[in-house]
Write a sequence for this structure.
């Protein structure tokens, strides 16, 4: 599992211009069952995506499709995470 941490590099007004395309990008990977959860940080300095994928390389390639990445609106930090306790895991 991976935690993708986005940090906005531009004012929110620039982010808002691409939010519809960004949400379409998210929807694509929710449909493929690779994204589990996502949302903005508060205060709104970026966002977080929780993803499941076979490899870090796959996650890095997926991010390259994000309009925020394409238009250099955000930076990304990817953390590999191995959850071993929690509601999602115990189901």
């Amino acid at each position: 599992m991976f935690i993708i941490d986005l940090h906005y590099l531009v004012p929110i007004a620039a982010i808002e211009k691409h939010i519809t395309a960004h949400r379409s990008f998210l929807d694509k990977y929710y449909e493929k069952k690779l994204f589990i959860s996502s949302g903005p940080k508060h205060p709104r300095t970026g966002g977080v995506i929780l993803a499941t994928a076979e490899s870090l390389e796959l996650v890095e390639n997926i991010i390259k499709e994000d309009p925020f990445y394409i238009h250099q609106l955000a930076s990304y930090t990817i953390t590999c995470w191995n959850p071993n306790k929690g509601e999602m895991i115990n189901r």
Notes: The chain has a mean pLDDT of 94. The chain has four helices and four strands. Residues 2-40+47-76 form one domain. Strands lie at 2-8, 35-40, 46-51, 74-80.
